[in-house]
Amino acid sequence: MEKIELLEESKRCLKCKNHPCENACPIGTRIPEIIDMFQRGEELEAGKILFENNPMSLVCSLICPFENQCMGSCVRGIKTTPVNFPSIENYIMEKYLRETTFENTPSNGKRIAIVGGGPGGLSGGFYLRRKGYDVTIYDDHEKMGGMLRYGIPSFRLTKDKVDLLEEKAYESGIKFQGNKIFTEDSLRRLKKEGNYQGVLVTTGAWLPKELNLEGVEREGVYYGIDYLKNNIDLGKNKKVVVIGAGNVAMDVARTAKRQGNEVLIAYRKKIEAAPATKVEIHETVEDGVNFLTEVTPVKITDKGIVLERNNEKTQFLYECDNAIIAVSQKSQFNVESLDGYFYGGDLVTGPETVVKASFTGRESAKLLDDYLVGKE
């Protein structure tokens, strides 16, 4: 949408006294205030407020589950369409990030390590850098971004948006060490051996939850997060079954479809119970992916996948070339009670939205700051 269209859209805001849109946002975005500032032409000032509250605002404006949050709570939506705040937010954040030079806050002499360079780690890193801490982010990937860069397909989030956030992180003075792999033991030693005053662990949830299913070790069977992370090319004209109906399953199915394949999502419940948002399911259907619900996978054979109809308890073979299991993820590390260590992001909550990872990353960074200030 062009700016003139966004201004017209902003005028649809009823300025509700109770701010249901703001209350529905997991990170408390000050939506009515931002809309007022946008209407007054205070776009850079609004961008600063958005970013300091949620450094992932640019990303959230594109991939948040709006229908469950701000737009789903908009009073306008009762009788007509809700106010499209995400598009307004996106315009403001693009302008703010591209036109603002970030301040490299003078050092307070204290060093912080952040393990995990995804939305939680970046959110915490920006907060701590503004407080003057010397921040180094470690990640097992080559570049910053975590799930934003390596887990979300480009048709949902173009990587230039992640590049922009990475650029602003460097500009603000955040250091980065990529391709750094930690074990539980080396993570415990990091604070002392690296001479850090505190450690924020935001390593996300990258390990697939495995299915106890005969045949999962067969060639052509993948786990969803690995399929996305490693950019696996299945080839064309294949029959692909995706097991699961969460957001990752939708991303997997749409990616496989874009590779030129016939794709079926097999889910054990009714579609209304799917963890994926209604919008994502709709977009997946629009892409030409088929759904088969109320079926449970029994085993994978050299010919395909055996499914059982839940109501009838009858089994049948669905012939396919590939099966991709996307039934959630888990973290590599556990939350431990270690002096000076704080935890955030999907490591704490399990697989969640970007906005919730940003929130927990920021809040954990605040706790770390309080801890260090209290030791002075």
TrEMBL record:
Recorded superkingdom: Bacteria
Listed InterPro entries: DPD_II, FAD/NAD-bd_sf, FAD/NAD-binding_dom, Helical_ferredxn
Ranges where the Dihydroprymidine dehydrogenase domain occurs: 5-98
A Gene Ontology molecular function term of the record: iron-sulfur cluster binding
Domain FAD/NAD(P)-binding, residue spans: 111-327
Pfam families found in the cross-reference section: Fer4_20, Pyr_redox_2
Protein name in the entry: Glutamate synthase (NADPH/NADH) small chain
